[in-house]
Design goal:
heterodimer, A: Alpha-Beta Plaits, 2 domains, 11 strands, B: alpha/beta, Rossmann fold, pyruvate-formate lyase- activating enzyme, four-stranded parallel sheet, 22 helices
Chain lengths: 246, 622
């Protein structure tokens, strides 16, 4: 039997659980061919999996009651994610491992939880808190094997600014701010792996695929992007330290 | 499909719209190993439309539940994907394992709507299967059709090896088993088709030859020796023989009717004389309340949907609906899961049922008076009076609704300008009634959506002999309606007359139409049901190129003793009954509903050897 809210607060070790609700944070993967799902499609699929798993989810009040949940920053169509996040509010407490296990059973393997834990009710929302993203871009093709790609990326970064045009609107990224850590390029079986850390924010985020594609173009090499994966999402606190949301 | 083949497909997904259409891996998709018979089931339009199709869902479940059978889904790739597949030489494939359709044993294609016919040719071409059945070889799959348009299969008959007339729950496995046995026994293609033609409900067009007189008029469709001269539809005696699919594939992308559904009854005997579904799905068979509740709950549990729809042609006619809705709403309380009831009748009971399931939601109600005057409603046997409609509207607006949608049809047999103006008049009365129920400060929120389609004469209806109006006359009547329609709070929408014209040609035509369909496809017609893709010019050019006058097919009146292209197909309702109903229409006499008031002599029950099945034993007062 699940514990009642009042009984379970202390066992959670969470100081600020809202009365009647428990905030379960789930880390999940969106990999393989399911990387082609849009954020809305992921949202819908996760809701359905939660119902199939019979999680004790909270329902919003009002004319159109629906499951109470909130996602982290959206992933573009075509970009995989190894550790994405969603918070689901629950009406009763049950151990997180058991809930995650049930959710995994009710999910397809390429879009399934990898970890879960409870967080304090007063934690900032995932979209506001998650401002750092780690990406891995696999570049295929013979042209990716030499040093030209790495050199082209370095030249791009050194230029300090990167302009993109989307739907007729031009946007200029300050690369010192958008790329808070130095990128890495390593050879791999298919060509090269580019690891990028990107700062996200309400003003827009630099898309790693766009950035790397520009480097390929400028290097005039025979290469193309095979896959883009967000390998992690991090919270940056007021002191500038980074931590995982879970 | 091997991983390297999938990689070829995957590379295309970065450059096409809505890649989720092509990726499979949804919850509930079937990939059981160990099979020796492979079927691909195609919905001849995009994924987001096809995933709503209950027939595909039922057949998919039935086939995959059978021993050593694997069925895969297939939808027509959108134009961008089709072009990319042709460029990369990737043939049409089933979603689950990526099986090339041309390597399947059976290629099942549902026939939902006349304007998907060019899509069928597009699918066959993408699959690398010859378009005409006669050109297919021993290695090609059996191309099997079925669905609503099968009741006049002639325009597309030459593209199919076999067409199932009627309901598929039982027939699909019989077809698969007979096919497999014949194949394993070494039968050639014609031998296999001959075996299939022995099955009840299976029409194999190559064994039927249309015969024409010197003037080119059809004098009959003659069956080869040993082949049944008339193909009777298959019908399931009791819906409860099979459970509704409770674990269907759950799509990732937003599809139409994106919810769990339980078909709570099949058939409708209200007897609207223009309505093909009301004739061809007879008799009425209800699922029992217990099985509806059981299947709805099981389906929600298995799929995770937040809504379950109780579907049918006429859901509020179910004899135990109130009991079902009370039980479901009690079971689902507090879970954020809703129940929806489509196809409302024009009466207070329907409003009460909508209120019961809707909770606080009042999104909109839809009613179909179909005609603007009582005379014309009597002609079409739409047993709804103006008083009933206004009373229902009053009940709905008193209960808090602020939006209603009204369906009408233009160009019905015997329609006059007075009937056209009657639509505007009725809409005005509905609007006045709604306004009288609502506080003056809230009247700005009242919306009456009026949707006006064009009459299309359909096979196996009392109006199958009646012509569609010429397109210019439809245009004149649309102008008349538009100019007389009240404006305030009214949203008027139309069905394009050109689209309805083409529907009528397909609905009434014979085998001569096949050449025009192919010519239209070869000149670029595909996805004709999509407004932005439909081009009547392409079609008129296609008809001209093959020497067929489409107007004579759509707007020509047929005499009641004329041989019709679909006379060798029977839905159980007798031609004599249809003729009698047409006669009664001309007298503006109405006919009652046999599921409430006793037999009206359509012959379907006797002809098909089945009976009306009512979950509650009887239906109450209407």
């Amino acid at each position: 039997m699940p514990a009642t809210n009042s009984e379970s607060k202390s066992s959670l070790g969470v100081a600020h659980v809202a009365p009647g609700e428990f905030r379960l944070r789930i880390a999940y993967q969106k990999i393989g061919r399911l990387r082609f799902l849009s954020h809305l499609e992921v949202l819908r699929a996760m809701e359905r999996a939660a119902r199939r798993a019979d999680l004790p989810y909270s329902v919003t009040k009002g004319f159109s009651p629906h499951m109470k949940l909130a996602f982290g920053p959206a992933l573009p169509v075509g970009t995989a994610g190894e550790r994405e996040y969603v918070d689901i509010w629950l009406t009763t407490y049950e151990p997180a491992e058991g809930l995650a296990g049930r959710l995994r059973e009710a999910s397809v393997s390429d879009l399934a939880p990898v970890a879960a834990g409870f967080v304090a009710a007063g934690e900032p929302s995932l979209t506001a808190a998650c401002t750092i993203a780690e990406y891995e871009v696999i570049v295929g093709g013979d042209g990716a094997r030499g040093t030209a790609l790495a050199e082209s990326l370095k030249t791009l970064v050194d230029s300090r600014e990167f302009a993109v045009e989307h739907k007729g609107k031009k946007k200029v990224f300050d690369l010192a701010r958008s790329l808070p850590k130095e990128h890495r390029v390593e050879s791999c079986g298919r060509g090269a792996t580019v690891d990028l850390i990107v700062r996200m924010g309400p003003e827009g985020s630099l898309r790693p695929d766009v950035f790397v594609r520009e480097a390929i173009l400028r290097a005039s090499i025979d290469a193309s992007i095979d896959t883009v994966t967000r390998t992690g999402t991090l919270i940056e606190d007021s002191e500038g330290a980074w931590r995982r949301p879970l | 499909m091997s991983s390297s083949e999938w990689e070829r497909v995957e590379r295309l997904l970065n450059r096409v719209e809505r890649p989720a259409r092509y990726i499979d891996h949804e919850w509930g998709a079937s990939r059981e190993p160990g099979f020796n018979y492979r079927a691909v089931l195609l919905y001849p339009d995009t994924y987001e439309l096809g995933m709503a199709n209950q027939a595909i869902s039922i057949l998919y479940e039935r086939l995959n539940a059978a021993d050593e059978v694997l069925a895969e889904r297939c939808f027509l790739p959108w134009i961008d994907m089709a072009a990319a597949m042709r460029e990369e030489d990737i043939p049409l494939f089933g979603l689950e394992t990526g099986l090339a359709v041309r390597d399947a044993d059976l290629f099942g294609i549902t026939l939902p709507y006349e304007l998907t016919y060019t899509n069928i040719l597009e699918a066959l071409d993408l699959a690398g299967i010859p378009l005409r059945a006669r050109d297919r070889g021993e290695g090609d799959p059996v191309v099997l059709g079925g669905g609503p348009c099968a009741y006049n299969p002639e325009p597309i008959a030459e593209f199919f090896d076999a067409i199932l007339i009627g309901e598929g729950e039982e027939a699909i496995l019989e077809i698969a088993n007979v096919h497999r046995r014949a194949r394993d026994g070494g039968a050639d293609r014609v031998g296999i088709l001959r075996e299939l033609a022995r099955l009840d409900g299976v029409y194999v067009p190559r064994f039927y030859q249309p015969v024409r007189d010197a003037e080119g008029a059809l004098t009959g469709v003659v069956a080869d020796t040993g082949i049944t001269p008339v193909v009777n539809k298959r019908v399931l005696a009791d819906l409860d023989t099979f459970r509704a699919p409770t674990c269907p594939v759950v799509p990732f992308m937003d599809v139409v009717h994106d919810r769990a559904s339980v078909e709570i009854l099949r058939g409708c005997t209200r007897g609207c004389r223009f309505c093909q579904a009301g004739m061809v799905y007879r008799p009425v068979r209800e699922r029992s309340a217990d099985s509806i509740v059981r299947d709805a709950i099981a389906s929600l549990k298995c799929t995770g949907y937040d809504e379950v729809s109780l579907t049918s042609l006429s859901t509020t006619d179910h004899s135990q609906l109130e009991d079902v809705l009370r039980r479901l709403t009690r079971r689902l309380e507090g879970k954020g899961i809703s129940v929806s009831v489509p196809s409302l009748r024009v009466d207070a009971f329907s409003i009460d049922m909508a209120r019961l399931v809707g909770g606080g939601r009042k999104s909109g109600l839809t009613f179909a008076p179909e005609a603007g005057t009582q005379r014309l409603r009597d002609v079409i046997n739409k047993n709804v009076t103006e008083e009933e409609l206004l009373g229902t509207v009053r009940h709905a607006f008193d209960a808090g609704w602020r939006r209603v949608k009204l369906y009408f049809m233009l160009g019905l047999p015997t329609e006059t300008d007075a009937d056209v103006l009657g639509i505007s008049d009725l809409v005005r009365k509905v609007s006045d009634e709604a306004r009288s129920c609502v506080e003056p400060s809230q009247r700005g929120s009242i919306r009456i959506a009026v949707s006006v389609s064009v009459f299309v004469p359909k096979a196996h209806t009392p109006f199958q002999w009646d012509p569609q109006l010429p397109r210019d006359e439809i245009g004149r009547r649309q102008d008349l309606l538009r100019s007389s329609m009240p404006r305030k709070g009214i949203e008027l929408s139309w069905h394009e007359a050109d689209v309805s014209f083409l529907e009528a040609v397909m609905a009434r035509g014979g085998r001569e139409i096949a050449d025009a369909i192919e010519a239209a496809w070869r000149t670029g017609a595909v996805f004709d049901a999509w407004t932005e893709r439909f081009d009547i010019g392409t079609w008129l050019g296609a008809f001209a190129s093959v020497g067929v006058d489409p107007a004579s097919v759509a707007v020509g009146e047929k005499s009641s003793n004329e041989i019709l292209p679909w006379d060798h197909i029977s839905c159980g309702v007798s031609r004599a009954y249809l003729a009698r109903e047409r006669e009664r229409a001309s007298e503006a006499s109405t006919t009652s509903d046999c599921s409430f008031d006793g037999c009206t002599g359509c012959d379907a029950c006797d002809e098909l050897g089945v009976e009306i099945v009512l979950g509650g034993g009887t239906r109450g007062a209407r």
